[in-house]
Structure formats: C-alpha cells, structure tokens
Amino acid sequence: MKRTLRSSPLAALILVMLVAAAPGAAPLPLAEAEALLHTPSLDLAQVTRALNLCEGVLASGAAPRPHVLAQLARICFVAGDLSSRKYSGGFFRKGTVYAETLSSEAPNRVEGHYWLALNLCGQAEAAGYMTARRLLPRIMEALERALALDEAYGQAGAHRILGRIYFEAPAWPMSVGDLHKSLHHLQAAVRLAPDNSRNHLFLAQTLARLHYPSLARRELERVLTSTGYAIKPQDLEEDCQEARRLLADIAAPSSPP
Fold this sequence. Notes:
By secondary structure, the protein is mostly helical. 74% of the residues lie in helices and 0% in strands. It is globular and about 60 Å long.
C-alpha cells in the first residue's frame, strides 16, 4: 500500500515543528502529544506519554482548558483501545470523566459528547453485555448531541458509530438494532468523510447483510484505496485486511444445497 505523508515517520517530526512554530500555537507538549498519536506503529507507551504530557498542560493551565480536555478524552480512548481487556476499562473510565467534564463546562462543543460516547462504548465492550445494555441509552444520547453540533466531526464519527450500533444491536423489542437506520448513518458517514476506511468497511458490512453484494463489494474496494483512519494509524491497515477477507468471501462460490 502506498504510504502517505500522514503515515510516514517524517510526518510526526514535521507536525511538531509546524505546530510549535506557528503564531499562537499550542504549547510544545500538546504538539508532541499530537505527533505521538500519529506514529505509524503507535503503541501504549507512546499513548501513555501523550496522556502524561496533556495532563501536565491541563494542570498548568498553559492552554485553553476545553481543548486539553478534548485531547485527554481522546487519548484515554486510544489508550483503552490499545490495552488488554484487563486494563482497558480504567482508561475508558478516565476518558469518560474528562469527556463529562468538557460536556458540562462547554456543552456546545462537539468533542465532549463525541468522546463521551466512545469512552462509554469502550466501557461497554470491556465490561460485557449487562453493562453495555445499561450504557446504551447514554451512548445514543451523546452521539445524537454530537450529530446536532457537528455531524462531520471525527470524520463523521457519530454517524459511523451510530451506524455500527444499529448494525450490531439486536432488533426491537430486545434492543435498537435496525439495518435501515444503520444504512442511513453509514451512507452519511461516507458522504461526509469519503477518505475514511472504516466508514466504507462498516457500510459494506451493512450492505452485505441487506443482501446487496455488488454494492458491498464496491465499498470494500474503496476501503483499499482509502487514506484516512478512524482513530489510530493501525486502523487503516486493519480495515484493509478485513476488506480483503470479505472480498474473498464474496467472490467464493456458494456451497451446494
């Protein structure tokens, strides 16, 4: 796969230099933390370093508090995503606190509601079915509020996550599952952020379940030419691997009855 500047080792250094040198730029620790999050082989040690840097900035008051809280909620989610199940819940709970604080202090900022939803999703996945069922109404509410404020934020992240929830959840009356609502949100995600690999991957899976194999194949092929990732750099290659697997499944002849 062709490497873009965004995914190259040089990109992180360039990002730090540009952000640090720009008039009115964020403090250097924030620039370093942002660069770390774009490291192609991002690992938990690097994310922990980014978390410590941003927590230091929050304590010092050296940057606008809403921006730092948003970064902390985001970084905690990434840390939870990279952690083992045993430790991920702690990061997601910490991210939830930062996101709730931001939502309370700046309710008209989309970041607080969006990262609240994602950290709650992380908690739900780490803790299992009963916790997921309890948290689902809060997750849906936070995503809807994020949509109302800025549906394009996070590469149409609220549409992407809502589309996936409607795809994965059991159908009514057990839960909120609805493939047509999933389709609606994921089509919106692709429209708003056409370069994001996960938007196309999730849309393809919904289309396949709705029995539109040719449309699903088209979306899977678009995954392979995407340049944007959902949350962390590794997501792009992971999405491409899954798209190749699903394309092979679609191409495989059906078993005889």
